[in-house]
Design brief:
110 residues; mainly alpha
Length: 110
Amino acid sequence: MRLLIPALLVAASGANAQVVNDYPTEARADYVFGCMAVNGQTREALTKCSCSIDVIASILPYENYTEAETVLSITRLRSERTAVLRNAPGAKNAVVDLRRAQAEAEIRCF
């Protein structure tokens, strides 16, 4: 997986060169608050979590991020209604892209 991430970064960096900061401050803050809840309420966690959302934002456009987050929140609800979304190829791809961006953020920031 580590070998795929640099290729993803190169491809994404060219596509996102114009849109470096398309994440609203509120979305970044929500991510950092959630990250700090998991990693501790320390200055070090703040630094690492802020770095993490910055890396994710540099790889994944905000629209794709919100799509993946929506898919993840809906699929946590286990029902017949959410099964269609869980199995939709576009939804799976959105989540895979988010997971790759998160993995890269983990490598760079933590």
